[in-house]
Design brief:
This is Spindle pole body component. One of its GO terms (molecular function) is microtubule minus-end binding. The structure is a single chain. It is built from 32 helices and six strands. With about 850 residues, the protein is mainly alpha-helical. The protein has three domains: about 85-235, no CATH class; about 285-375 and about 390-435 and about 445-475, no CATH class; about 480-565 and about 590-645 and about 690-855, Four Helix Bundle (Hemerythrin (Met), subunit A) (Up-down Bundle), CATH 1.20.120. The strands form three sheets. It has a two-stranded antiparallel ribbon with strand order 1-2. The protein is elongated and about 145 Å long.
Amino acid sequence: MEPFTPRTQTGARKKNITLSQKEYSKITGTIARTRRQNSDYSPRNVSYDEPSFIAETSFVRAPLNSRVSSTSAAPKGKSRNDSLDHLPIDIQEALILEDLLYILMGIPGNYITFHPDYSPDEEDPLQGIRFVISPSLDSSLRDLVERILPLGTYYTAISSFIEQRSHLDFGLVNHALCASIRDMLKDYQTLLSQLEHSFNTSPSFSLQKLWFYVHPTIHTLSLIYSLITDLAFADDPSASLSASSSDTSDAEEEARNEALGIPSSKLKAVLSETPLTQSSSSIPVKGGEVLAIIYEKQQSMSGDPTASMLYGTLLRAAGKPYVAMLRGWVMTGRLVDPYEELLVKESKFINRGILEMDYTDEYWERRYTLRDGSTISSGNKGHAHKAGVPAPRSAGGRLPGGACVPPLLESWKHKILLAGKYLNVIRECGIEVGRDQEREEEEFDMDDERLYTFLESTYTHANHTLLQLLLRTGELIPRLRSLKRYFFLSQSFFLTHLLDLSHNELRKTAKSASIVKLQSLLELTLNTDVQGEDTMFREDVKVIMASSGLYEWLMKIIGTGGIEGNGKVPEQEPEEYKGKDKDDKKQMLAIDALSLDYHVKFPLSLVISRKTILRYQLIFRFLLHLKHVEQSLSTMWIEQKTTPWRKPVTKLGNASSRPPSSASRSRPSSSASRPPSRPSDAPAPSIPSTLSEQSEFEKWRLRVFLLRARMLSFVQQILSFTTFEVLEPNWRLLEQKLDRVRTVDELLRDHLDFLDTCLKECMLTSAKLLKAYSKLIVTCATFALYAAPYTKSANQAMMETETAEGQRRRWEYQVKFETNFDHWFKVFLDCVQFYASSENGSLLPLVVRLTSIKKT
């Protein structure tokens, strides 16, 4: 059976499970009195049932008990049968000197006893024991004795603090602090031994000499007592004043229940779905919070040389385990923090296995974080409201435990975090991090300037190593160039070829189209259009089908504040879109859902993550739609070069061939086979009512030619602006930044800023611009679908077989296309002009381009 280890207590007050000071004094006094009464004591007369002197447990704690007089055996240490009034002053001084030697060890004497209100069960041991002097003591001695008495209070409080904070729950920093204070108490106990020797051997030893020897020690112990008081009550007052029932519960019962399989209180709370929130009062004062309190005490008493030296010594001693954990993190990338004292926190549930399946940037952003919740973008201010960050202490507003960053490391915390993260990524790649033996043997203190030089050098080394791994071994720059080619269509021959080969497949619905067939066609086009370094990455490009339309999805994101509100794009499409087209009568075509995906391995997935791939996909679908509409309008232009469109009309129409007036036109339906309806606030263009020199059909043909040319010009201007005025210049700026990049975080930030800037300048982050643009581009795409019906109408008109109803419908469709295009073009141009003059100056070239196709 394994030995049972009782549960440690974490409360501010601990119930004393050993004998109290009064009980020790009573027992040892009785033993000493019995020995003095038996004057014929000899080893022969010792009975076997008498406890030996060595077996006295009190001798270890109070060596002075061996000379306790018989009068000290009175109940509660108050046996003062003889008053000091009738005794001479020199006798009083001798008796008080003997009592003071007890008091300085925390043991009550004959004439100096515990305070009447003192109770070991009710008093907090960290406040120390208070003593009172017999009122019969001469007043000339009383003042000096009262000056020495605080030493006993300080000693008992410090001893209780060391005993309490040596438990495992308080961490390595508290252990090191207690060890340092214990070493100081050894000097104090050595002083007491010397004072006792002088008291027993020197007739000239007096109260004045005792005061002379202990006076410097009073100041030292008062400084330590002030520190432990701040540490003991740094948490919430409610936590320090109330001892919870869990602290006094039977440890054996808890262990027995666990052995029998009975759930503990915490497990019961989980099973009953009771939330176990981590408040600041439940976290003991440990780790960085201890160092912060010591440093603040040192700074507040910097004018006192003794206090500054004492607190500096304690800060260096308590900071040794903290610095050791810090060095292990920044030198190897391994976080060894068993008591959660360091400023860096690890989320172990995020590992590389998750990264292989879904290469998000969670591994980089959430695997290792600062306990105070602060990030580089948010500055040095933590976010206590964030999940996983404990609430600040009610007293002082300091974050509890390891979440409190020591003030000496406040300006270095981000470099400490990044240095370890860089090395951790290198280790995850299977590259062993080299160790510098000289640095490992070198020791640093918290206030040592060499520590911060060491942190700077390790950060620079880790940063440079990972950056070279990404840029050289990972070939990041060629990767980004291939992304530019495939997603930004810098060399779009493969896309034109793909659209031609997959024309029939892309005319199907998104669910009916074969992704396998489209993937094979994509590989065929990429293999026939190989350009240099792109050959090694073309296998990473995959065809996917989006579950929602581009403009509907973007409008949804903008409506919820996704892009325009906080600059963030969700890493996947909203859930409400994934099954949306089940209820729609019209399903999305494959050409509208077509998109590309790009697969990379770790550690390149830190840079080319799902978040960045999504931005590339948004821009690709935007350009793809433009390319498709341009190709459709160009095909319409080629078709309109046939005989029905080019043959001159010499015969004039008669009255019956006159087009109907606008009043006789009915409103079209919203079906997909019909042109978009005319906006209610847009004036209807005039329809020729009289025919003089040209026929009605010639007028209609010219109107069709003009509208097609304007639409084609609009699409080409948008495409030209996007590629030459937005994507290419921003790409050149990114290349310049990558040449000067010094840190991995700069690399990540520059890459993300580049994509966000492209999205903004492509007008994909503004709801008004996106709405007007989507209406325009849909109008152009719908107009291109009417190429075949228009050609059929033209053939009928040329052969004079067209009916009056067919003529009316031909003009009706044309007028509605013109009306919609003119209306939304005006709205779009006004929006572009407004944003160009207020928010987005990069749209000014687009204003000039659009003005050239504006209808006069």
